[in-house]
Amino acid sequence: xxxxxxxxxxxxxxxxxxxxxxxxxxxxxxxxxxxxxxxxxxxxxxxxxxxxxxxxxxxxxxxxxxxxxxxxxxxxxxxxxxxxxxxxxx
Length: 90
Fold this sequence. Notes:
Layout: H1 5-14, E1 31-36, H2 44-54, E2 58-63, H3 70-73, H4 75-88
Parallel strand pairs: 1-2
Protein name: AB hydrolase-1 domain-containing protein
InterPro entries: AB_hydrolase_fold, Meta-cleavage_hydrolase
């Protein structure tokens, strides 16, 4: 990782995607976003923006004291919300 730093930096720079020009496909199925409120990688604001971009078939639940791996941080809350969503799917 410490060798070829210039090439590594170029690769990382190429991974950056501008959210303003990204278009998401239209999904016919319902989508449920389960998001940790303390996610350090993707904020709750990012999740709300994603929910808006995915459309009206998307719901979102934020989980208090949950981080990026919310299913590991708060497994009981996560499973409860996941079961609630799955029970509502016909």
